[in-house]
């Protein structure tokens, strides 16, 4: 959000005051240019950055020194971080969330990488990215995170959710790229699920039931055999006579 006219005047006064605290005077034209370049950043961040300059600097106040302390001006990835992210785009399964600066720089380095020279590709990328980054900072452009979709749906969901959590992408922007949430099962689906569960439970319990049935039958056979032996023991014994 651009600064209001009142905030712009306050920034100009803070720039002059900070330069004076650091022991030098600043020409009005220089102060106005610095205030103009800072106008694309949030007022609170500018004020905090100038406060840090007063506490940390020992030389002249410069625009570069102020921007180093403005969080929004340093929201772009560092060159080595950007290179590591760009390399993931070589895997077609991977979803990549990157900025136009990273994509353009990698476009410069890709032919070198495909030629087998990874070291040369990295050097080409870093040089191109530094140029893109310098241009973005000069124009006060903040990172504009974009999505390059990969084929793996699970990785896609993970990467997009991480980007939303990190504040790089708003949730509504990626909602259509994520799988739909699970819908509650219908009554028919619930009935089918119960039926399947009952069948599985029956299959699991069936071996135990069969073993129990066999044990009962064995006990019954043993009981019948015992009763037969008792009956034989109680019957009168016939004695054979002599001729």
Question: What does the model show?
Answer:
By secondary structure, the protein is an all-alpha fold. The protein folds into 3 domains: 5-74; 79-177, no CATH class; 183-220. Helices cover 65% and strands 2% of the residues. The chain contains 10 helices and 2 strands. It has helices at residues 5-21, 28-38, 43-56, 63-67, 79-87, 100-114, 118-138, 153-165, 171-174, 187-234; strands at residues 96-98, 146-148. Strands 1-2 form a two-stranded antiparallel ribbon. Helix 5 (79-87) crosses helix 7 (118-138) and helix 6 runs antiparallel to helix 7. The N and C termini lie far apart (135 Å). Mean pLDDT is 86; it is low at 237-243. Residues 211-229 have a biased composition (Basic and acidic residues). Residues 205-243 are annotated as: Disordered.
């Amino acid at each position: 959000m651009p600064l209001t006219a009142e905030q712009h005047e306050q920034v100009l006064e803070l720039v002059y005051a900070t330069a004076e605290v650091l022991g030098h005077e600043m020409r009005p034209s220089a102060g106005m240019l610095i205030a103009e370049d800072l106008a694309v950043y949030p007022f609170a961040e500018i004020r905090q950055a100038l406060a840090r300059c007063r506490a940390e600097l020992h030389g002249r106040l410069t625009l570069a020194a102020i921007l180093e302390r403005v969080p929004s001006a340093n929201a772009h990835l560092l060159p080595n971080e950007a290179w590591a992210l760009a390399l993931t785009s070589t895997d077609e399964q991977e979803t990549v969330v990157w900025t136009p600066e990273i994509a353009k720089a990698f476009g410069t380095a890709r032919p070198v990488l495909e030629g087998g020279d990874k070291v040369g590709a990295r050097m080409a990328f870093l040089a191109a990215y530094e140029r893109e980054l310098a241009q973005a900072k000069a124009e006060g452009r903040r990172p504009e995170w974009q999505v390059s979709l990969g084929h793996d749906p699970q990785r896609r969901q993970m990467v997009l959710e991480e980007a939303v959590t990190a504040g790089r992408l708003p949730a509504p922007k990626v909602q259509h790229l994520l799988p739909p949430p699970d819908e509650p099962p219908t009554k028919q689906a619930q009935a089918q699920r119960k039926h399947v569960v009952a069948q599985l439970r029956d299959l699991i319990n069936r071996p135990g039931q069969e073993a129990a049935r066999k044990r009962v039958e064995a006990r019954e056979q043993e009981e019948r055999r015992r009763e037969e032996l008792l009956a034989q023991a109680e019957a009168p014994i016939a004695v054979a006579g002599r001729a």
